[in-house]
């Protein structure tokens, strides 16, 4: 749970320094930084009388067991399959214990801090105290300095800090301290932050080859033009939903990305008559709204695609929710969205990182002045997101905190889908890693995406109908305009559920690349988990039909299919399918996905990985066969 440049040392006594005060136990080093991140330099000692908003992130209870709790309710052979937890059960299972709160509070009071200055967050996730620098330096046996970045930004930090030995087991970390999460530069020389995820050109974005100039209505045209009938045929999705009142499906969009109602209606005229006059149910998060001020493929392509295909495939009977996150000024990150759908996440492990995530109210001109969304939005059963980062854009700590939240949503019975990326084994915009961890166009090391590498989401890659082939022949990995994101994480270990499938791939079809350009340990999370068509989508954008490519297509299409499986289960009184990975990798589900065995995912100057029979790091287990999957899923409790 710790960024790589920190070390946790538990037993260096600092008894001498503390001789002047009444202390319950000797101090020990808690966190220490081994180097200052590139671009930063120490400029001066911080003023003794300045106020520091000290935050003590308390240790979560039971967090190390989250994977096994999730397995217990989502593996088809488990007697507890489908027994999802309530949000309250999740919050209390992982909330720090009362003994952690009192250990920290008693120590602070014993050190001379007035009790009324100490605040405990409602979820007990952290303890907050406005301390002078002098007080903080005393409490933590440290010195605070002001560091300056070459861009002019300042950051308050220390090199190391200490806690009394009896307090240490209750504290994850203290902020501000050695952490430089502000460093997270996305690639050398360019500052990026997680909240830019909705900006045109940032992260995973669909591509277009331009306008469709011919009439498209026939199944015979699916090798050149994908329309809903192609997908229904490819994935055996003929289904009329029955439990629409109980069911829910949402797509997430990050402002300024926005859908146009006129485009939805244009699409409905040609391809989806029952959507005529319908619109998505929009839930605004942190001031999000479907802006119309900026238009063009880069602003409307993603949202138009997601809603036109997502809404069509679940039919006009099923309402689709649009979570529109972030205002026009600050935007939003995935953390801002997660805060909205889970109140316990807002403060989890010390809360969001505002060098990365947006902060509301937003006092910039034109900013959203309402309070930051925190647990105000009910999560839908299936949530599809076609945006993404490179894993290396984020620190391991940031990625792990967010990944644990996906596990919590899984415990609550929610299916989380993310596109796996559009640049094969390379990262967004074809950037690859260098040995020093930076990302550049000439990097050589494979660059996996996030959250696709989080073991608690379902990552969706892309396929294509081969040129001159029909929808009745097998698809290949997508090799038109985009390549399916896939590979192996550098942050997350291989989860139990995929061990057999990934081991089989690595031993039967071992990738022939040197170990220094991919994570060849055989112990890291492989992605994607599944795939769906991602080439040649006919999408109504800005008043005309355009041809669109990307795993951005694959995620909402898969989301619609899983939503229809939920419908069938809800209709007979069963639970939603929740976190699907332990189920879909299990032997009971073998053969229910269409295995993709041709094509690769090039990037970083290589041909990428090969597809192969069984799971592969290009198309995962393959594309869903709705008819087979729904039948099997109905046999589960
Ligand atoms: C610390 O000070 C800020 C700014 O005055 C205030 O908003 C915040 O509530 C204070 N926090 C605590 C724990 O007193
Ligand atoms: C949509 O329908 C109109 C009217 O029938 C037709 O002229 C147009 O070619 C169709 N567009 C596509 C992409 O098929
Ligand atoms: C990291 O390595 C790349 C390529 O070797 C180089 O161009 C870049 O300057 C290095 N950056 C830092 C911060 O060391
Ligand atoms: C598809 O068929 C057309 C017409 O027969 C031909 O010109 C083209 O080369 C074929 N493309 C592929 C990839 O086989
Ligand atoms: C490979 O992944 C594991 C986590 O699964 C990580 O511990 C290890 O550092 C990674 N190797 C490299 C070279 O990044």
TrEMBL record:
Keyword vocabulary terms for this entry: Calcium, Glycoprotein, Hydrolase, Metal-binding, Protease, Secreted, Serine protease, Signal, Virulence, Zymogen
GO BP terms in the entry: proteolysis
Domain Peptidase S53: 225-636
Ligand binding (Ca(2+)): 595-596, 614, 616
GO cellular component: extracellular region
Top-level enzyme category: hydrolase
Active-site residues, Swiss-Prot/TrEMBL: 302 (charge relay system), 306 (charge relay system), 552 (charge relay system)
Cofactor section: Ca(2+)
Localization annotation: Secreted, Extracellular space
EC number in record: 3.4.14.10
Spans through the membrane: none
The keyword Secreted is assigned to this record: yes
Top-level taxon in the UniProt lineage: Eukaryota
Catalytic activity field: Release of an N-terminal tripeptide from a polypeptide
Signal peptide: 1-19
InterPro entries in UniProt: Peptidase_S8/S53_dom_sf (IPR036852), S53_propep (IPR015366), Sedolisin_dom (IPR030400), Tripeptidyl-peptidase_I (IPR050819)
Reported function: Secreted tripeptidyl-peptidase which degrades proteins at acidic pHs and is involved in virulence.
Protein name: tripeptidyl-peptidase II
Organism this protein belongs to: Serpula lacrymans var. lacrymans (strain S7.3) (Dry rot fungus)
